[in-house]
Design a protein that fits this description.
The chain has five helices and four strands, in the order H-H-H-E-H-H-E-E-E. By secondary structure, the chain is mostly helical. It holds the Pfam family YidD.
């Protein structure tokens, strides 16, 4: 059941990974922030889910403009993650202790 709830998040992660592999290299290093906006979006969705992660990514893209100072801007981390991130970047339920 939990894996089914993670399906929208993992689908969005797949789209973001495809974007980072195909489109992002065409632009080069143009982002004012570190990590880049696409990396920020990927990490935000991984950590916060599809809805909250997308809203964080949209807010980040809106802030990324020629008048922005830029700098280091990491997505907020969850205090107690209930998932693990696989080597390919997808999210899976965390193993429960004692189970």
């Amino acid at each position: 059941m939990t894996t089914l709830l993670l399906l929208p998040r993992n689908a969005l992660i797949a789209v973001l990974r495809l974007y980072r592999a195909v489109v992002s290299p065409l632009y080069g290093d143009v982002c004012r922030y570190h990590p880049s906006c696409s990396r920020y979006a990927l990490e935000a969705v991984q950590q916060s889910g599809a809805v909250v992660g997308t809203s964080l990514a949209v807010w980040r893209v809106l802030r990324c403009n020629p008048w922005s100072r830029g700098g280091v801007d990491d997505p907020p981390a969850r205090l107690r993650p209930s998932y693990r991130i696989t080597t390919h970047g997808f999210v899976r339920p965390a193993e429960q202790p004692g189970g």
